Amino acid sequence: MFNLLVVDDEKFAVKGITQGIDWSDLPIGQMYEAYGAEEAKHILTACPIDVLISDIEMPDANGLKLQEWVKEQSPFTETVFLTGHANFDYAQKAIQLGSFNYLLKPVDHSQLKEIVAKAIHQIQSERELLDFNKTYETYYKHWLNQLPILVERFWQEVLAGKIPLTQERLQAAFELYGIPLNAQSLVIPVLISVEQWKEDLNARDEEIMGYALRKAGAEMILQEHPGCVILDQNGFHLVLLYVQDSTPVPMELDRRCYDYIQACNRFFHCSLSCYIGEKTPVAEINQVVGTLLRMERDNVVKINGVLHQLRDEVPGSLLPTAPSITDWFLLYELGKLDELLLRIDELTDRMQQGAARSETLQALGYGLIHMVYHVGHKKGLSIQNMFPHDELQDIAAATRSLNQLRSWAIRVVSTGIEYMSRHHQDISAVVAKVQKYMNDHLHEEVSRDDIAHFVHLNPAYLSRLFKKETGLSLSEYMLKIRMDKAQKLLIESDRKISSVAEVIGYSHFSHFAKMFKRVTGISPQEYRKKFQTNKS
């Protein structure tokens, strides 16, 4: 609804407009009356007025003066002037002051109503436009705030091959996101690889530190040069320099990367390397970034370094052969820790001087795991118990660099040998655990594999160990304790013999009777009759 104010020093003129015109078919909420400019100002100050109908000639201040005040204090109010004089100066001044229309007295009510209706329609249109502009401005601000994320997502989709890299598609995206490139432009990718955090970080802390690395990369590698820093689909930080006349020369880019690495070492407590690609068209950036990723994967020796695609890439034909560690197996089995640690140091030192690659480290890592499982199973030991913290699971992290592999290998062989030494002294405890398990499961069909699984030992090794400790095989021991239990129940209880058989794990009475007679020399019935008679 809209508010209307009528101003005139003649009361009948005001009433003639407010009451003499039928305003019911217009969206007018309140109708106000004023009999001079000062009274009108009070109303305009107190209430929002949409349409002002004002006489020009008034004793305290004419309508033109009032209009000057209105434009300052209520700029969205539309004014319709009324006057009894056809004075061109008045009309000119009214137009200059931005009035909506100008009518001569005596006023034609239908004409005035039509002009007010047009004024209301214009106010509605202006309000809708203002609301649209406000809404647009709000979303535009949101869009600007999200623009860095949208740019990052665009480059992530480019690198992931999710969008067609046609000239039209690229050009449209560059214009949409305000990227200062065209479809023929070149970019220089710089891959940032975090090699090691010097402090343990949880997932949240690592994400925060990754954000800090990207911000620092933008400040120190890009500096004022156009470009962006993103997190790619492989979890690597990637700097993209847009090639322009001001693109830093290779030596300058090297210096920026070295300064960045030193700053990250100092402030973010991590070691990392930068891999600089060659200038490439946007449509071919996948291939260059793929090359940098292979370089990063194969770099297992050089840390905190700056490597170049054309200078430091190693041809696949130069892959080194995997080292043989077959002689380590016996040292590990015999518990020769000092000699084994010396072998690890010697081998990793040689690899440090040579052309070690990620495949070499992975082969050595898997070789060590094979050694641990081979010797452990040979001794009948549980690898899960030997390494309860999953040291053998994350082979990718263990072989990430030569230094990490050395530390992991030392930790694995030390843990394994210490466990084998301690376990050798605890054999009797294992046998006792097996005996308790068998006593607790007399009523069940328990196999050798079930028992071995319970104590995490190789079944064959457990059988040898149990026989050595007790003089009985597992099956002989189970038969003994079952028959001991059966004899006790036959003497001390009135259970049916078939019930006694079920209690000690025999589902068939005939088989129970056969085994009982083999052990005691008599049948269960004869045994009960003989010993219960003696008891009484």
Automatic annotation (TrEMBL):
User: Example GO molecular function term?
Assistant: DNA-binding transcription factor activity
Query: Is DNA-binding found in the keyword set?
Result: yes
Per the record's keyword annotation, is Phosphoprotein included, yes or no? yes
Q: Which Pfam families match?
A: HTH_18, Response_reg
* Domain annotation Response regulatory: ranges: 3-120
Q: Which PROSITE patterns does the UniProt record give?
A: HTH_ARAC_FAMILY_1 (PS00041), HTH_ARAC_FAMILY_2 (PS01124), RESPONSE_REGULATORY (PS50110)
Residue list for modification 4-aspartylphosphate? D55
Annotated HTH araC/xylS-type domain ranges read: 432-530
Keyword terms, alphabetized: DNA-binding, Phosphoprotein, Transcription, Transcription regulation
In the record, which residues are listed under signal peptide? none
| Biological-process GO terms, alphabetical | phosphorelay signal transduction system
**PANTHER family, sorted:** ARAC-FAMILY TRANSCRIPTIONAL REGULATOR (PTHR43280:SF34)
- Name of the featured protein: DNA-binding response regulator
- Species annotation: Paenibacillus elgii
